[in-house]
Amino acid sequence: MSDAFVRLDHVQHVYGGEGGVLAVEDLTIAVKEGEFAAVVGPSGCGKSTLMKLATGLQFPRAGSVVVGGEKVSKPVKMAGMAFQNPVMLPWRTTLDNVLLPLEIVEPHRSRLRKEKAAYVEKAEALLAQVGLKGFGPRYPWQLSGGMQQRASLCRALIHEPRLLMLDEPFGALDAFTREELWCVIRDLHAAKKFTVILVTHDLREAVFLADRVFCMSARPGRIVAEREVNLPRPRDLDVTFSPEFAEIVHELRGHIREARNVH
Amino acid sequence: MTQKQKIALAPWVFTIGFFLLWEIGCRVFNVSSFVLPTPLSIGKAMWEYRTQLSFHSFHTLWMTFAGFAIAVVFGLGLGLLLGSSRIVHAGTYPLLVGFNAIPKVAVVPILVIWFGVGWMPAVLTAFLISFFPIVVNVATGLATIEPETEDVLKALGASKYDIMTKVGLPRSMPYFFGSLKVAITLAYVGSVIAEYNASKYGIGNLMARASADFNVPLLFASLIALAVLGVVMYAITAWIEKRMTGWAQRSGFAAN
After folding, report:
1. Where are the beta strands (DSSP E) in A130-241?
2. 3-state SS class at A56
3. A48 lies in the same domain as A177
4. Widest CA span of chain B, in angstroms?
5. What is the average pLDDT value for chain B, to the nearest integer?
6. What is the spatial distance between Cα B3 and Cα B255, in angstroms, rounded to a whole number?
């Protein structure tokens, strides 16, 4: 597995100093470049910790984290992130919210002022791609929850990150909107080929989107199972009703049940 | 009449009603004008002393705005510092609270010893009494940034300065402008207190002299002038707040 793009090796992480909460232990995971990886597990198993470790927002107590061939010792500077809560800035229009990463990440940061028009065009194209054509000038609080989540995806992708981190981004949405956004992220990934780590507790979501699904144990979290999803791409929503799909979901459910120690 | 028109009219009706009740009460119970003058006699006194009143009001306004301006700059700076560093916050908070607990009227004599009688004590008292709410509010605005927002920016490699200017500052603006409404009224109280005790000019000084002369109508005329100026200053800051941070006032909760 030397070709891994994101690699956590026997990682241990503790919150709150000595005697604190052991969040993950002996966590080993490797995600290839361009791969869509999903991490599922019981609640409180350290999935979000995994995301923070992989982006350099937290550093492990033991073990190593390598992203893009470099050992992570500070925030990785190239990750796009989206959470369950869209966290748009209410004083900025949707378009300005989407443009925010460009004000921080080089080389865009120094170019933004000069090539504003080109960047705005790009942002608008991205908004159109997720079904938000014409909503750029609106304020986030004028949009519905699902629309805000779409905009939040645009913000995570505008600077063309090599790594996209999704922390239960569809958790707070209704089932129809959620499935719609699955397709949005599926198409974006197919078009741009970035690496995705999706943290979720929805097994169907994980199987529908991912190339590989990792199951985490209850806290302290570690990977207890890894399952390749070899359903052919592009996948249609109908695939979720196929027996192969059901079989994989069923298998993963078994792992999760074991992980929660419920028999 | 629509609900909107009623709301626009309500302040006038209530204010006029208040003075009407006052006038009637004074007449019915035959209250001596030495104890409580009627609004009409106060109005007469205001007209009679209009040049003095406007001269001293203008002076008080000046002192208030000068002190307030210093408080805004100082309060914003200290608030940003407190909000961005937990150590500074923990270290200075007891000092700040202790300082704020001192009645500022007790500070005026010290200021007089330092700077003598004049405009200095008035401006400084206005400043000292009004910066605290600004500091607390700005610091609160910064301290309540959503951790996810911070994570999004940090994962992009944003510096602490980036996070401060892109998120912290705009986010604390509603708190800041909200605190200005409180601060301007406090600054006003501060300058009047100082004028009362240590100045040759200002409404506070006018009141001190009126009270020494037992000129009760002038005393009340000064009070009314103070109240009107206070309302005007409050309205100005409220208007600025609305202009600057309209995005934060979208709740329909208080609409009707």
Report:
1. 163-167, 195-200, 212-216, 223-228
2. coil
3. yes
4. 75
5. 88
6. 11
- List pLDDT tens digits, range B147-182: 888 888 888 888 888 888 888 888 888 889 889 988
Q: B96 vs B255, which has greater pLDDT?
A: B96
Q: How far apart are CA A208 and CA A228, in angstroms?
A: 12
A75 in contact with chain B, both atoms CB, cutoff 8 A: yes
Residue A13 lies in a domain: no
**CA geometry: angle B19, B22, B27, nearest 5 deg:** 130
A76 inside domain: no
Chain B residues lying within 8 Å of A57, measured CB to CB: 151, 154-155
CATH architecture classification, B60-246: Orthogonal Bundle (1.10)
Chain B residues in contact with chain A using a Cβ-Cβ cutoff of 8 Å:
146, 148-149, 151-158, 162, 166-167, 170-171, 173, 245, 247-248, 250
Contacts for A61 with CB less than 8 Å, ≥ 6 apart: A12, A13, A14
Amino acid at A19: G
ipTM over 0.85: no
Q: Residues A263, A185: one domain?
A: yes
Distance from chain centroid for Cα B115? 24
Distance from CA of A83 to the nearest CA of B (A): 7
Tokens of B79: 């608030």
Whether A89 and A215 share a structural domain:
no
| Residue A221, token pair as written in the block | 């979290």
Residue A199 sits at the chain B interface (C-beta within 8 Å): no
- Domain of residue A213, CATH code: 3.40.50.300
Any idea which residue has 């009707």 for tokens?
B256
User: What kind and span of H or E run contains A256?
Assistant: helix A243-260
Structural domain harbouring A114: 84-161
Q: Cα–Cα distance between B33 and B49 in angstroms, integer?
A: 17
Q: How far apart are CA A221 and CA B35, in angstroms?
A: 78
pLDDT tops 70 at residue B252: no
On the question of a cis peptide bond just before residue B217, with omega within 30 degrees of 0, the verdict is no
Identify whether the C-beta of residue A159 lies closer than 8 Å to the C-beta of residue A74: no
Which residues 137-156 of chain A have a CB within 8 Å of chain B? 139, 141, 155-156
Nearest to A87 among B152, B155, B247 (CB): B152
Residue pLDDT, tens place only, B88-146: 888 988 998 999 899 888 889 999 999 988 889 999 999 999 999 999 999 888 888 88
Q: Which is it for the CA torsion A111, A114, A117, A120, positive or negative?
A: positive
A215 shares a domain with A155: no
Dist CA B82 CA B152 (whole Å): 23
| pLDDT tens digits for range A193-245 | 899 999 988 899 999 999 999 998 887 888 888 888 888 888 888 888 999 99
Count how many domains chain A has: 2
